[in-house]
Amino acid sequence: MLFNSFVFLLGFLPVALLLHWAAERFAPHWRLPVLAALSFVFYGWWDWRFVPLLAFSILLNWLIAEAFQKTRSGGLITLAIVLNLAVLALFKYFNFFADLAAMIPGLPTTKLDLALPLGISFFTFHHIMYLTDLRRGQAPRFDLLRYTLYISFFPQVLAGPLVRWREIMHQFDERPYQRSDAAQRIACGLMLLTIGLAKKVLLGDPLAEYANPVFAAAAEGHLVTMAQAWQGTLAFTFQIYFDFSGYTDMALGLALLFGVVLPQNFEAPYRSLSLQDFWRRWHMTLSRFLRDYLYIPLGGSRHGLPLQLWALFATMALGGLWHGAGLNFVAWGVAHGLALAVGVLWRRAGLPMPKLLGWLLTFLFVALCWVLFRATSFEAALAIYKGLFGLTEIGSGFKWRALLPAAAVALIGPTAWAAVHKAPPARWLAVLAAVVFVLVLFKIGDDANYEFIYFQF
Questions:
Q1: Assigned domain for 1 exists
Q2: Domain count of the chain?
Q3: Is the predicted pLDDT of residue 378 greater than 80, yes or no?
Q4: Mean pLDDT across the stretch 409-433?
Q5: Taking the alpha carbons of 40, 437, 207, 361 in that order, is the dihedral positive or negative?
Q6: Is 56 among the domain residues?
Q7: Contact between residue 197 and residue 438 where contact means Cβ atoms under 8 Å apart
Q8: 166 assigned to some structural domain
Q9: Which of 85, 287, 308, 390: CA 20 to 30 A from 414?
């Protein structure tokens, strides 16, 4: 079920909160089993066929971790990581590699008609983080219940944030409603949930109506005018931000309601003054994962400039492939890897970069790369690029009304996390949040209910 749906907001969430409160209040030892059961119900609501896959994945990885605790055989962890990546590759990348193999004349290929389990990339990465830290001697043993909840906790199981075990596991043993700041946490959680819903429904979804027709026209081989290309590109640039950061705000808010603090995932990325700065602000938990579990093991910045540039390139290329089984996603990652490498060389040379120019170049580069991310093929991306660079008709009818408030919030307004935690307790804020929540419910009822973009990853 979607966070931005009636069944979740008016059905699942109230029932889940009531059950969680009752367990925490009258039978604290049942709190974690209740949370785990709720998480599996939430996950199974999408497609019950994938519940056994999630459960088996958790059990197998936990059993291998248990065996490692007894034997200290690093080969067990390697085996577990390979198995996790193999399952991910089977569901997400089998047909992609089959298409690549089909380019070789005479080579027989086979395709599988497999549905992609929701959240498989995210819970696979959670397994890898824990197992890698376990092998490094940094992670302790956890019982099956706590490990199950670490992987399946419903606010973050589908699209993150990517949570390290050390950030969350100790919180499962707390009595959240007995904390001195329990009321404040609940208030912040409700505010974050409301703001996230508003960002998704009131800002992100209207931009989809600007972007989708343009990219659909490009996919169908139609000419895309300059006005249409810039409209579609800018609309998707802000849509994906409000869609994904709105989801993250909701995830953080929901987790707070259940007594868990999740890490932030966005810090006003479109205000970045460099691409390096952008990746410190965009999908921050994924950036940390790529840095600590891929970039540094590949060599990082401590073994000479050539290896650093290679590590950046390889990390971002693989990061692009993680986002989607398509060459356009690989190209998106490669472009970011090359640009980050240029940034390293620029800084090594000690060349200046005025702040305004740095922001403009970063924003334009990110926006142009989003075309590769959104387009369904290189041909469709090329049609958009032709329009962007004036190689087609100028056109008319540029739509800006939904773009203007979105740009203002993204470039000027505070982040939801900062706004919520800096706001003083006030009755008028509670009333305002309630009004916004009701408006969002009316909007959900009137319009198409778009899925979150990152659910496909």
A1: no
A2: 2
A3: yes
A4: 89
A5: negative
A6: yes
A7: no
A8: yes
A9: 287
Q: 139-150, pLDDT tens digit by residue?
A: 999 999 999 999
CA dihedral sign of residues 289, 294, 296, 300: negative
Same domain, 63 and 114: yes
Q: Are residues 226 and 162 in the same domain?
A: no
Residue 444 CB contacts under 8 Å (≥ 6 apart), including other chains: 4, 5, 6, 201
The set of residues, in sequence order, having a beta carbon less than 8 Å from that of 166 and lying 6+ positions away, is 139
Closest by alpha carbon to 254, among 1, 17, 11?
Answer: 17
Which helix (H) or strand (E) segment is 418 a member of? helix 416-422
Q: Cβ distance 244 to 452 under 8 Å?
A: yes
DSSP conformational letter for 29: G
User: Tokens 């740095």 belong to which residue?
Assistant: 358
* Same-domain pairing of 69 and 187: no
Domain carrying residue 444: 183-456
The last residue of a domain, from among 156, 180, 204 = 180
* Sequence-distant (≥ 6) Cβ neighbours of residue 390 within 8 angstroms: 226
Residue 325 within a domain: yes
Catalytic annotation, pick one of 20, 127, 283, 323: 323
Pairwise CA distance, residues 149 & 33, whole Å: 9
Model-wide pTM > 0.85: yes
Indicate if 323 belongs to the active site: yes
Rounded CA-CA distance 198/436 in Å is: 7
